[in-house]
Amino acid sequence: MPMLFDPIQLGDIALANRIVMAPLTRNRAIEGNRPGPMTVEYYRQRATAGLIISEASQISAMAQGYLDTPGIYSREQVAAWRDVTDAVHVEGGRIVIQLWHVGRISHTSLLPGGAAPVSSTNRRSPAMTFTRDGFVPVSQPRALRDDELPALIADYVHAARCAMDAGFDGVEVHSANTYLLEQFLRDSINDREGPYGGSIVNRARLVVEVMQAVAAAIGAGRTGIRLSPMTTFGDTAPRDSQPQALYSHVVEQLAPLGLAYVHVIEGETGGAREPADAGEAFDYAALRRRFRGAWMVNNGYSRADAMDAVASGRVDLVAFGRSFIANPDLVRRLRENLPLNEPRPDTFYGGGADGYTDYPAFDGNT
Fold first, then answer.
1. Are β-strands 13-15 and 19-21 bridged in parallel, bridged antiparallel, or unpaired?
2. What CATH number has the domain bearing residue 219?
3. How far apart are CA 295 and CA 288, in angstroms?
4. Are 47 and 84 in contact (CB under 8 A)?
């Protein structure tokens, strides 16, 4: 019977335990969209996680959607991330980077030359984003042409290679939370015709091609993916009309690649694992049966939930988000059933060390 605190082999990456730090956007990148010294300390403090998945990091200048988020495509960014990975490795930790393209969830002021965001569609999202002028509605996107998609896939490959140059143990491709790849997957967003629109097979084509290319470039055993079959993520998009069929097909297409893991957000991101408005329940177990690699889950798991999920064999790893923000020593606290620090939401996005690197480790009094 596996336990939450047992080691596990995640593809080519050996982990000390099955507790994962989820990717968490913190908006503290410095000039050039680089992680700075505070970010080095932030991840170093949390290196007892079996695996750290870094904050989502844009694969190109056109992939950015929020102010002060880091990239992983320039030499300067690679050098800055190297300081992070070195610090985590010195502490005995393992870290992968989440590769991100926001698609239509962006604003012209964040993009090169004031360009329009790109997506599967030219329909605007109802989402808001954060710019130097504060929270503003996202901009009108333009639909990518089919002949532009090979260059997009090349951007993912370039970012993955940059990640390996920066010392990461692997990458997680962000195909969740209604960002670009999910904008191609869902029929509630993707209204295009041709080889990347219409049928489930066509809508899944881009994510499959991205995963094939990244796995070929850096090794499938160092490549994972994040999916969110049932999320609407702040009402940025409705769910697909056939989520079970869509995501079953995606996982079936990914299974032969030998990926290190699939990371699934169960239910509504940051909300209920079984949303009341979701209609028919989503069968995550059926999805898992289609994949031979490690299965990681996320979304509001308590200590008891996580221990039960792993011990039952339903999942292999559990990712924790806000708990890791407030508890750099979360692994110890979970193992010893110690009380947890409460996170401070007003410090989640942007700012300095307050609410970032100043949460205390347990000392017997906290």
1. unpaired
2. 3.20.20.70
3. 7
4. no
- Asked if residue 112 is part of any domain, the answer here is yes
- The C-alpha atoms of residue 23 and residue 99 are separated, in whole angstroms, by 10
Q: Are 231 and 267 in contact (CB under 8 A)?
A: yes
Q: Which residues are catalytic?
A: 179
* Structural domain boundaries, residue 176: 8-347
Mapped onto helix, strand or coil, the DSSP state of residue 70 is coil
DSSP state of 56: E
8 A C-beta contact, residue 67 and residue 130: yes
Is residue 131 within 8 Å of 107, Cβ to Cβ?
A: yes
Tokens of 306: 């996580």
pTM beyond 0.85: the answer is yes
Say if 114 falls within a structural domain. Answer: yes
Please count the structural domains in the chain.
1
Residue 226 DSSP class: E
Residues 83-102 pLDDT 10s: 999 999 999 999 999 999 99
In a domain, 363, yes or no: no
Reported as a single tens digit per residue, the pLDDT across 126-163 is: 999 999 999 999 999 999 999 999 999 999 999 999 99
Q: Is residue 352 part of a domain?
A: no
Paired tokens of 75:
């030499």
- For the record, the structure tokens of 335 come out as 């193992």
SS3 98: strand
Sign for the CA dihedral angle at 20, 26, 31, 32 comes to positive
